[in-house]
Amino acid sequence: AQTVTQSQPEMSVQEAETVTLSCTYDTSESDYYLFWYKQPPSRQMILVIRQEAYKQQNATENRFSVNFQKAAKSFSLKISDSQLGDAAMYFCAYKQDTGRRALTFGSGTRLQVQP
Amino acid sequence: GAVVSQHPSWVICKSGTSVKIECRSLDFQATTMFWYRQFPKQSLMLMATSNEGSKATYEQGVEKDKFLINHASLTLSTLTVTSAHPEDSSFYICSARGRPGGLSRGLYSPLHFGNGTRLTVT
Fold first, then answer.
1. What pLDDT, on a 0 to 100 scale, did the predictor assign at position A100?
2. Which residues from A are below 8 Å from B40, CB to CB?
3. What is chain A's mean pLDDT, rounded?
4. Which of A97, A107, B112, B117 is 20 to 30 A (C-alpha) from A39?
5. How far apart are CA A115 and CA B8, in angstroms?
6. % of chain B with per-residue pLDDT over 70
7. Which of B91, B104, B111 sits opposite A103 (nearest CB)?
8. Which residue of B has its CA nearest to A96?
9. Are the Cβ atoms of A102 and B93 closer than 8 angstroms?
10. Across B14-89, where does the E strand assignment appear?
11. pLDDT tens profile A9-30
12. 3-state SS of A67-112?
């Protein structure tokens, strides 16, 4: 079974600074997807960024970028120029490319942004 | 973009009663819907997967007779919590996946989440 591990229950960053959230996963599959989701107090799940395992290039979405290390099974999220609105729970998630297509989530990291 | 509507957003019920939660895909056909449960300050745990027109597949430890899932059409899945007890109080989130498409090798189809339902059983 696939597992996703987020070892940082809480992180804090100063506004305008950069923060990196860690995620590791375990799988025997070669094709899969990795995601970072943001969950603000409203509890709405918001997709931040997605990475296909077969792509070597790291995904980027404006201020958000990932460092995908397939061999190490590591998938960290970097938030640049942090904003107050970035404060939320962040979940790393994994999805197999075939077969069962549900997302497996990590335990989450609560990000606080200090003004 | 694709929208998934989940209703109600919150509900309070008495112990022993049943509660139905609806999950609708508003502008796409959801071939698969997933139901998750989230306890306070915890992650989302998959409860079951439902495919239109077939029985739901439940995760280990989830009581299928207690959490009834029906996916009768390509736009609607329902989760009924039967004989609810206080320990069933939680946040329930549905997500829906449309038909695969796009240019990615794995025929990636996006997963869209509802806004969730906060259930409180008194």
1. 55
2. none
3. 94
4. A97
5. 35
6. 89
7. B111
8. B106
9. no
10. 19-25, 32-38, 44-51, 57-58, 67-73, 76-81
11. 999 999 999 999 999 999 998 8
12. EEECCCCEEEEEECCCCHHHCEEEEEEEEECCCCCCCEECCCEEEE
| Distance in Å from the first CA to the final CA of chain B | 37
Phi, psi at B84, each rounded to 5°: -65, 145
What the block records as the tokens of A1 is 């079974």
Q: Residue A78, Cβ neighbours under 10 Å: how many? A: 16
- CB distance A103–B95 less than 8 Å? yes
> Exposed/middle/buried for B23, CB within 10 Å: 0-12, 13-18, 19+?
buried
Q: How far apart are CA A2 and CA B106, in angstroms?
A: 18
Compute the average pLDDT of residues A35-62. Answer: 94
Six-digit token pair at B90?
A: 């939680």
* Structure confidence by residue, pLDDT tens digits, A51-105: 999 998 999 999 999 999 999 999 999 999 999 999 999 999 999 877 657 999 9
- Give which of A8, A44, A45, A110 to mutate to test B binding, by max B Cβ within 10 Å: A45
Mean pLDDT over B7-11 rounds to 97
Cα–Cα dist B48/B41, whole Å: 21
For B71-117, write each residue's pLDDT tens digit: 888 899 999 999 999 999 999 999 998 765 433 344 566 788 999 99
Provide the residue count of chain B: 122
